[in-house]
Amino acid sequence: MGKNLNEDILNIIEKTINSGFIEKTIEEKFKNILEDIIREELRWGSSYKALKTKIENVLVLAIEGFDFSKYITKLDTVLTDVIKETSLVDNQKILNNFKDLMIEPKKEGVKTSEIFDEYAKYVAESVNTSNLEIDYNDDISYVPVEVHMSIVDDWNTSGIFEYKKIILTCEEDEDLNMELNLTRYRNNKYFTLNLRSSFVDINSLRYIDSFTIYLLKLDRAFTKIYIDEEYIEDYIRPIKEPEPWE
């Protein structure tokens, strides 16, 4: 029985080899491996970068050759309707914010210290002064407020992506505190800003502050953000001056 079993096994092996099963299996596995290599190469490798460059060049040419004139008329109509429904003060705010939002950032990259400087200006303009003490030395003014910037790792960091948060705080006015999300591929030297929502309705332009406009421009232009400072602390004097009777 043992001899017959061995012969049967040998016959099966011989038939399998002669049927081309091994060649077909190797071919199938090789195709799978090749597909995986191509998929990864087109996703992250040098081929991906080459294709990305080619596609970007084509898109730039297509956008440059596109006629936006028909949309300008529609935009003018929308702006005119909005302006008719608002006060003169609102009109100016809407137009200024719209103009600022449409202007591309002057630089391809900004440093975190520059973002902090813009935040400090925003705090100086917007801080609630109702509970601030008054400095009577020299010119009468409110005492400076304390502002901070710190950069921390985001717990979502994993794989090929790295996430960080810019935390901006004003000790005297918590309503001005905010967190900004940064994202990058691990092999990049720079981050990009990732606002949770960069959609702006034209009617809301009257309510948007200058710092938010600044952030929206960085987000929409995919501006490169370089971390040159991870922690900054400063004291900023409010622009608003105390009333004479305070």
Topology diagram in text:
Elements: H1 2-18, H2 21-44, H3 46-64, H4 69-84, H5 88-102, E1 109-111, H6 112-126, E2 134-135, E3 141-142, E4 145-153, E5 161-170, E6 178-185, E7 192-193, H7 210-220, E8 224-226, E9 231-236
Parallel strand pairs: 1-8
Antiparallel strand pairs: 2-3, 4-5, 4-9, 5-6, 6-7
Helix pairs in contact: 2-3, 5-7
Question: Care to describe what's here?
Answer:
The chain has 246 residues and is of the alpha+beta class. The chain has two domains: 2-64, no CATH class; 69-236, no CATH class. 48% of the residues lie in helices and 18% in strands. The protein contains seven helices and nine strands. The strands form three sheets. It has a five-stranded antiparallel beta sheet with strand order 7-6-5-4-9. Strands 1-8 form a two-stranded parallel ribbon. It has a two-stranded antiparallel ribbon with strand order 2-3. Helix 2 (21-44) packs across helix 3. The protein starts with a helix and ends in a 10-residue tail after the last strand. The model has no long low-confidence stretch (mean pLDDT 76).
Query: Could you estimate the helical fraction of the residues in percent?
Result: 40-55%
Number of beta-strand segments: 9
Shape: elongated
Number of domains as seen in the coordinates: 2
Rounded to an integer, what's the Rg over CA atoms?
30 Å
Q: Please summarize the sheet with the most strands.
A: 5 strands, antiparallel
Contiguous runs where pLDDT drops below 50 for at least 5 residues: none
Largest beta sheet: what is the strand line-up? 7-6-5-4-9
User: Terminal Cα separation, in Å?
Assistant: 111 Å
**What structural class do helix, strand and pairing data support?**
alpha+beta
- List SSEs in N-to-C order: HHHHHEHEEEEEEHEE
Average pLDDT taken over every residue: 76
Helical segment count: 7
- Bin the strand percentage: 15-25%
Which oligomeric state applies?
A: single chain
